[in-house]
Amino acid sequence: MNIFGIGTLEIVFVLIIGILVLGPDGMIESGRKLGKFMRSIVHSAWWQNIRKGVSEIQHLPQRLMREAELEELNELRELTKNSFPSIGSKDLISSSSWGGNLTPKSKSVEQSPKVSEQQINEEKKPEEPEE
Length: 131
Description:
By secondary structure, the protein is mainly alpha-helical. Helices cover about 65% and strands about 5% of the residues. The chain is built from 3 helices and 2 strands, in the order ββααα.
């Protein structure tokens, strides 16, 4: 077990020294004072500001990535509007019916490319092993 970089044996050693120096009653009173002090720090506005700052720093990379993606998307929209005036002011990205499915839709027979019989026969021919 390792708490704040201090091992179990070191904690036991400190407790034994504390009992020898302060005595059993002094250890109880010191523990109470330490607990009250820690509670006052944790509930203070100063500590809450530190926790909020740490949280903001931890989430900063994700927030920056999200903002960069939004800027890039807005630049792409402006470029599309300027490059293709026939589209007009339609926002095709937000009004698209794409649901996020990456699998292609099956093509109908009319849309499928024409394949000659020669190409089909070439695909079906087994390769002859070289000797």
